[in-house]
Amino acid sequence: MPSEVPREAMDADGRVDVATAQRIVENAVARATSGPDKSASIIEAKVAEATRRGARLNALLAFGVAVTLVALGVAAFVVYRSQRAAAILTTEAGLGARPVAAPVGTLPTKVLSGREIYEQNKGALYVLAYKQNRLISGCCSAFAIDKNQLVTNAHCVTSCGARGGKPVVVQNESAGKVELEVVAQRAHPTYSTSSKRADTPDVALLRVKGTLPGAVTLASDAELRALGPGDDVYVLGFPGRVMDPVSPSATFLSGHLGRLMGFDEQATSADKAAVILHDAVTRGGNSGSPIFNQYGHVVGVHAAHMDDEENISIDGQKTTIVQASPYRIGMRIDLVRGVPTP
């Protein structure tokens, strides 16, 4: 029997009865359970441990997501660089370009002399002029392409009209007898009046009241695609100093095609080379003159000089020196297809 049993509860042999033993056990249990309750602290400890484990797991997940996003960004950049490099190679190799339509028409076989070209086309040449009362002032050259339409430069349409007066065209070598009123003018829709360079389509159409007696022949697509440096070219028009709007007489000028290029003055494919560089000696009134090839067909419209500019300093002030260049700019004749009918 445990020592906690009082001696007075025992008999002579050291035994206790059942009731006494039961009471002793109950007292022992009561003493054992009468201490402070530790269940709350145990629960708090368990909760704290679970929270710490959750925080560690969340941190690991966040780190994994961040690494995944970085990896996706790197992969996207690599794919972009690869696709860009492939696109550049494809463009340079011409693999992704749409096939260019075959040019329409054929190359003529008969080469004409300069005199033949002039004689065949002199009746299609006109001075674009403006009349105020009885006064008439010349502005640009123009040429007939059908019974009531002529081609000239867009800058002639947008700037010459500012002088005032009624626009008319006077036929070459007609002694002023063939004079037709211009009833509508239309510049190429993408021509930029603010540009000081020939980097936009400088072409325009004129519509007259009445019937034009003759017209030039426009070069076919095949002729335009076949143009190249060294080709003979001829310009027929009315240079400013000798322009006479009362009784016009065209001047014949010859030269060579120096280069074909795009509006950015860079080399390009034959179907996009809309700018013609030539060296026929033209002057201001030649704007709007037709440029003929050796077959007597119009390949372009003379538009401007290509002068060289140099910035220098004189007495500490910056000055731009313009030096005359032997090169002239022409617009390829197929640009007029983009001009709406006036």
TrEMBL record:
Keyword tags: Hydrolase, Membrane, Protease, Serine protease, Signal, Transmembrane, Transmembrane helix
PANTHER family: PROTEASE DO-LIKE 5, CHLOROPLASTIC, SERINE ENDOPROTEASE DEGS
MF GO annotations: serine-type endopeptidase activity
InterPro entries: Peptidase_S1_PA (IPR009003), Peptidase_S1_PA_chymotrypsin (IPR043504), Peptidase_S1B_tx (IPR008353), V8_ser_AS (IPR000126)
Signal peptide (from-to): none
Record GO biological process: proteolysis
Species of origin: Polyangium fumosum
Pfam families: Trypsin_2 (PF13365)
Record-linked Gene3D superfamilies: Trypsin-like serine proteases (2.40.10.10)
Coiled coil: none
Name under which the protein is recorded: Serine protease
SUPFAM superfamilies: Trypsin-like serine proteases
Keyword field contains Nuclease: no
Transmembrane segments: 59-80
Keyword DNA repair: no
Domain of life of the organism encoding this protein: Bacteria
